[in-house]
């Protein structure tokens, strides 16, 4: 949308109380730029014909007034996320919930500096994981799966199942326990071995008839705090 069109679209609407005409121009343009409510600061600056430093001053003022969130970090694309107060200016049906921007990929090997692009908004866990109806969450207790990066306090996503294949990470109800355990499943004939992913834990061995599979691991969400506590 061109700058002229953007200004025409909001000409009849007066600036909200407390905003200067220029701040209103910035906010109105942000509202019109992208319907998904995540706006690139560079796109906004180009649309308005403003230098980025000048735009930044207006964005900080709008953020302080509660109209938007301004995310700017070194070597990353500066993003603008509209507040519910700002989205309400559009009128019409209630907007979709706001989320967190997914900014492409990060190198876990040699460092790279790639173009930053917003791939989308993450508003729910199933935006990231292949979850289905019936899947459920459990909080991890114990350290038997730390070799997979699953630490105490992390949350795992489980898909209900009654059968596991060798090598699956399964939620298994075992004799004498009130809760199930998450282990790697290994069956040979009528015997089952449940392997931990931590060498300090011995394998658990049972007759097949003694254990019951309750689900399979879909994925997990971890906290940096749990890793820091171990450092």
TrEMBL record:
Q: Where is the composition biased (Basic and acidic residues)?
A: 1-11
Q: Does the keyword Transcription apply?
A: yes
A Gene Ontology molecular function term for this protein is: serine-type endopeptidase activity
Which UniProt keywords are present, listed alphabetically?
A: Autocatalytic cleavage, DNA damage, DNA repair, DNA replication, DNA-binding, Hydrolase, Repressor, SOS response, Transcription, Transcription regulation
Residue span of region Disordered: 1-21
Q: Which GO terms describe its biological process?
A: DNA repair; DNA replication; negative regulation of DNA-templated transcription; SOS response
Q: Does the keyword DNA-binding apply?
A: yes
Provide the Peptidase S24/S26A/S26B/S26C domain boundaries.
101-217
**Pfam families in the record, alphabetically?**
Peptidase_S24 (PF00717)
| Xref: InterPro entries | LexA (IPR006200), LexA-like (IPR039418), LexA/Signal_pep-like_sf (IPR036286), LexA_repressor (IPR050077), Peptidase_S24_LexA (IPR006197), Peptidase_S24_S26A/B/C (IPR015927), WH-like_DNA-bd_sf (IPR036388), WH_DNA-bd_sf (IPR036390)
PANTHER family registered for this protein in UniProt = LEXA REPRESSOR (PTHR33516), LEXA REPRESSOR-RELATED (PTHR33516:SF2)
| NCBIfam families recorded | lexA
Family membership noted in the UniProt record: Belongs to the peptidase S24 family.
Q: What is this protein called?
A: Repressor LexA
Q: Which gene encodes it?
A: lexA
């Amino acid at each position: 949308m061109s700058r002229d069109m953007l200004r025409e679209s909001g000409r009849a609407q007066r600036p909200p109380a407390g905003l200067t005409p220029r701040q209103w121009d910035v906010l109105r343009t942000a509202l019109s730029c992208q319907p998904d409510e995540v706006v690139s600061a560079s796109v906004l600056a180009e649309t308005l014909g403003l230098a980025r430093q000048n735009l930044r001053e207006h964005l900080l003022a709008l953020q302080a007034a509660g109209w938007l969130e301004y995310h700017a970090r070194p070597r990353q694309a500066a993003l603008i996320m509209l507040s519910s107060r700002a989205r309400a200016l559009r009128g019409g049906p209630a907007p979709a919930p706001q989320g967190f921007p997914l900014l492409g990929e990060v190198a876990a090997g040699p460092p790279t500096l790639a173009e930053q692009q917003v791939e989308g908004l993450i508003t729910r866990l199933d935006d990231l994981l292949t979850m289905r109806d019936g899947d459920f969450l459990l909080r991890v207790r114990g350290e038997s799966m730390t070799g997979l990066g699953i630490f105490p306090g992390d949350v795992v996503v489980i898909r209900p199942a009654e059968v596991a294949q060798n090598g699956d990470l399964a939620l298994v109800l075992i004799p004498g326990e009130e809760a199930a355990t998450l282990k790697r499943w290994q069956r040979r004939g009528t015997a089952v071995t449940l392997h931990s992913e931590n060498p300090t834990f011995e394998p658990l061995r049972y007759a097949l008839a003694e254990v019951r599979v309750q689900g399979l691991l879909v994925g997990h969400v971890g906290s940096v705090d749990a890793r820091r506590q171990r450092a």
